[in-house]
Amino acid sequence: MNIPNRTKRNTLMLALFILLSSSLIAYLFLNYQLKKSINSEFERVVESTHRLFEINLKDEKEYLDISLDELLLSDGLSKAVANGDYKAIDSIVSPYYKKLKQSKKAVNILTFRSEDGITLYRAHKPEFFGDKVSQQRKLIADTNFFKRSFDGFEVGKFEMTYRVTRPIFYNEKYVGNLELGISPEYFLHELNAVFKTELGIAIDKKLLDIFSNKEEKGTVAIDDRYVLIDNKQNLKKYFMDENRSESLYKVSMNISLKNHLSESLGHLIVGFDIRDIAEKNTNFIYMLFFMIALMMFILVGILHFGFNKILKHFSKQVYKDHLTNLKNRYALDDALTSQKSKVLILSNIKEFSLLNELYGVHVGNETLIQVAHAFKEFAQEHSFEVYRISSDEYVLLKNDENFDEDSYSKLTEELHCKINSLNIVIHGVDEIISIEIYSGIAHDHAHSLEDAQMALKKAKKNSLSYMIYSKNVDTKESSQTILNIKKTIKHALEHKNVVPFFQPITDKNGTIVKYEALVRIVEFDNGKKNILSPAEFLDISMKSGSYIKIAKEMLEQSFSIFASRSEKISVNFLPNDFLNPSIMEALIIGIEKFESPNRVVVEITEQEGVENFERLLHVVKKLRDIGILIAIDDFGSGYANYAHILQIKPDYLKIDGSLIKDILEDNESRILVQSIVRFAKELGITTVAEYVETKEIFELLKSYGVDEFQGYYFGRPTDLIGV
After folding, report:
1. Whether 190 and 208 share a structural domain
2. Going by C-beta distance under 8 Å and a sequence separation of 6 or more, which residues neighbour residue 643?
3. Which residue windows are transmembrane per the record (predicted)?
């Protein structure tokens, strides 16, 4: 009897050992998977936060650039800065700043400075001005020194702001700069709303020492190097409190906040509290451990089956939203890991938080349940998977390799019609609740959710019901084009690729009497010659400060070529060019190469809003005294001032091409051209017709009495002119 009893006892001990060992292994494995899952989730959140932070930063930079462009184009602003006129600046900027603050409350700095760094005006503190900018402020000092725009983060007195600067030019001369600053708490608020994390800002202690040697409130030391700016996010409460376990609060400082020189000033801190997740999963693991042990004691033979069944239950609990019974964010993340192309529609309820405040959480929850039911019906009708990923956010997901924008636009409109037409009836609430939704749509296999969030954000910003993510949502292309043109202009000036092209001008007999110099930029791409017209680069050159160099290069080359020729040379000037000493000096030096200055024709291109006509008239008279001929270009284009013509008394009137090109069919053009010719003849002014492309136009204009002709009928602009 002893042997059987001993055998039973040994068998029982072995079974218990196996059971306990298996349970321990299971517990350790689940605990390991839990930690791995939490770490992976944290890494994903950090990566997504970083990506969205950079996108938001670029979007805000573009918005601020547009805002500053709008401000700098204000009438009289450049002149007011040049004159240091505080009252004039205030009258222009004050209403603009109030408007800007209404749309961007986080904007807390708008400052104008003179070219030597003296503060002329602060929109945010208009009563303070006149101080000298500190040389420690690298961004501002560099703007003053290089006379071009910079942007980046900057540490002020125990705070950090994102700043954008712009140089200000008046009459092509640098007169000062404009600085705009926005609080980074604005970015943190948006990121918190998206990722449900806690964010803070850490600054290098050395930077704080620049401004003060005193220890101030509002900051707390993180370690030997960094200081945390207290932005009321309670970050320090979680990872600095000694009574809490650091393992229950994960922190990343991998996102650098850089200044305009790409120097790291500090870091964006991403904090993720895993206590609730860890506690729920730990409790579940204990329950699971107990159930496994119990089932093993009942029947060792079905241990494997029971364990798998419980694991399935665990997975189901983890991937289900318990309020609506829809799949949750974890399930969506798993679905998005596959490499198949998907269409993702992200929707959220307009002003749902207000509904919660008015009616209470119970009514809000019941609303979410009924909305979830409507989403589920729509998903079943159109073969989508449906998820609830946060309080009032729902996702429809569908595998689709061939994304058709029109089809999904109609589908989204059908979704909105269904949800927006819901009549939500809740017990205890007298009125019927109606809601509206916004949606963002993305088609991708890697970052669909983030793309849809950007599209949703744009839809809200533009007051649209939905938006499909595309490159246009990121608005990067136009900025890249302008940057490329700036690089092209710089390269062209450095390598003498700004060249004059010449178009012939003939008399009534078709004999060439002069040439007009027209600016071009010549590029060579893999041996292929590419020619840029003024329309592609001239406006950008004016805004970037390179226009004067282009104008001087054109004058130098044109006069060098025609100094030894017999024909006249005609060069173009904008009215404000006559007010620029540098351009006028280049003109005078070029004319010295000619034995007879009357072979040089200066064309004044008509332009609306000449700043100082009296000064322009004075310069024109000086040029006439030298012997230079004067022409009014594009006459009849819409800005002509006949009184100015009588004062300037030009030698030539060039009739605008817009009147010539349709003259055979347009009776009004014929009447206007005849009127201009009569007006010119009575004043003894030679008329020149542009855009003469056919023999019929040529013969008609001759019959009207036009003196000279220019257009493709006689020759296109070229850089090589035969002797």
Report:
1. yes
2. none
3. 12-30, 284-307
Among 290, 294, 254, smallest CA distance to 271 is for 254
Q: Residue 542 burial (CB < 10 Å; 0-12/13-18/19+)?
A: middle
Q: Which residues contact 480 (CB under 8 A, 6 or more apart)?
A: none
Amino acid at 481: T
Buried b (16+ CB within 10 A) or exposed e, 154-184: bbeebbbbbbbbbbbbbebbbbbbbbbbbbb
Same domain, 582 and 677: yes
Distance CA 193, CA 464 (A): 20
The H-assigned helical ranges of 301-433 are 303-318, 329-336, 352-359, 361-381, 405-420
DSSP state of 241: -
Residue pair 720/699 in contact by the 8 Å Cβ criterion:
no
- pLDDT less than 50: residues of the chain: 1-8, 135, 210-215, 217, 236, 238, 242-244, 246, 303-304, 307, 475-476, 723
CA–CA separation, 225 vs 244, rounded Å?
23
Burial class, 206, CB count within 10 angstroms (exposed 0-12 / middle 13-18 / buried 19+): exposed
* Beta bridge partner(s), residue 394: 347, 388
Q: Which residues of 663-674 are buried (b: 16+ CB within 10 A; e: fewer)?
A: beeeeebbebbe
Q: Residue 496 has what DSSP assignment?
A: T
32 contacts: CB under 8 Å, gap ≥ 6:
none
Please indicate, yes or no, whether residues 235 and 260 belong to a single structural domain of this protein.
yes
Task: Say if residues 423 and 432 touch (Cβ distance below 8 Å).
Answer: yes
CB atoms inside a 10 Å sphere around CB 603: 20
Count how many domains the chain has: 4
Does 311 fall in a domain? no
d(CA 691, CA 708): 12
What's the confidence (pLDDT) of residue 401?
A: 85
* Same domain flag for 582 and 514: yes
